[in-house]
Specification:
Strand order of the largest sheet: 2-1-3
Shape: elongated
Largest sheet: 3 strands, antiparallel
Strand content: 25-35%
Radius of gyration: 20 Å
Number of helices: 2
Length: about 80
């Protein structure tokens, strides 16, 4: 019979990207080490699920808004400076 696993779910974000991680762990010691590593990276929001087998569905929602003229000009100037 399969043993229970621990699934650690957390999110890392920066200005450029957002990464969602779902990582399985076989025992509590490995999970504790992973939590210690998250703490050192200052990641404090996470979820732990205990179970044998997990099915996941990912839903993403993104709200986009038009940049005002001033922002658009600044972005265009920055692109031209790089060229």
């Amino acid at each position: 019979m399969p043993r229970d696993r621990y699934y650690l779910i957390y999110q890392e974000a920066s200005d450029d990207e957002c990464l969602l991680t779902i990582q399985p762990y076989e025992d509590q010691q490995a999970l504790a080490e992973a939590l210690s590593e998250l703490k050192s990276q200052q990641i404090t929001d996470y979820t732990i699920i205990k179970g044998r087998k997990i099915k996941a569905t990912l839903r993403v929602a993104v709200d986009l808004a038009e940049a005002d003229d001033e922002e658009a000009k600044t972005d265009e100037e920055a692109k031209q400076e790089k060229a």
